[in-house]
Amino acid sequence: MKKDARKKIRFCVLLVVTLVCTTGLFYTVFANAKRAGDEVTQRSFDELTSETKRLATSVANTIHTDQVILTAMADLLANQDLSDYRNPAVLEIMRSFDLDKTFISDLELLMPNERMLRRSGIWYNVTSMLDFEKEKAKGAYISDREKTLLRRAKR
User: Fold this and answer.
1) Domain boundaries along the sequence of the chain
2) pLDDT, position 128
3) What pLDDT was estimated at residue 53?
4) DSSP state, residue 103
5) For position 43, what pLDDT does the model report?
6) How far apart are CA 72 and CA 64, in angstroms?
7) Whole-number Å distance between alpha carbons of 23 and 16
8) How many CA atoms lie within 13 A of 90 on its CB side?
9) Within 10 A of 74 (CB to CB), how many other CB atoms are there?
């Protein structure tokens, strides 16, 4: 009987040691998996924060560039004879700036006689759509995205 009792005790001890080791192994694996997941999540948030700051800086720089381009264009146009709405220098100035890397999607020049020159060189009568004096009163500004005056479905 002593042999059987020893075998049972040895079996129970081995079973308890196996259960403790298995539990410890599971705990270690799951704790490390959670820690690795937390680390990956934190790195993702850190990278997202960094990229958001980089994007915000890029957007701010592009807006500043747009303001510089428009101000330079306005300064050049201010020195032109705008009474002759066919003055080729006006269109040349409007086309002289590369707008590919800007937020400017369209460029138009509104004249006091409610005529508007598009960058394409086409003049439009916008009397019923825009008021030069109201726009002038707003001062220098860059508009939000708006529907075009000529094709209302397009921005």
Assistant:
1) 1-67, 80-155
2) 81
3) 97
4) S
5) 96
6) 12
7) 10
8) 22
9) 12
Q: What is the DSSP letter of 114?
A: S
Quick one: pLDDT at residue 30? Answer: 93
Amino acid in position 53? K
Average pLDDT along the chain, 155 residues, taken 10 residues at a time: 78 88 92 94 96 96 90 88 79 86 83 85 84 87 70 63
Instruction: Please tell me the predicted confidence (pLDDT) of residue 32.
Output: 93
Number of H helices, E strands in the chain: 3, 3
Q: How far apart are CA 104 and CA 106, in angstroms?
A: 6
Q: Which pLDDT value is given to residue 151?
A: 65
Give the type of residue at 37: G
- The count of residues in the chain is 155
Tokens for 91? Answer: 């269109």
Which residue is associated with the tokens 């009568």?
Answer: 125
- Burial of 90-104, coded b for 16+ CB within 10 Å and e otherwise, reads bbebbeebeeeebeb
User: Any idea what the Cα angle at residue 24 is, between residues 20 and 29, rounded to 5°?
Assistant: 150
pLDDT of residue 135: 86
Cα 6 → chain centroid: 74
In whole angstroms, give the CA distance from residue 106 to residue 124. Answer: 15
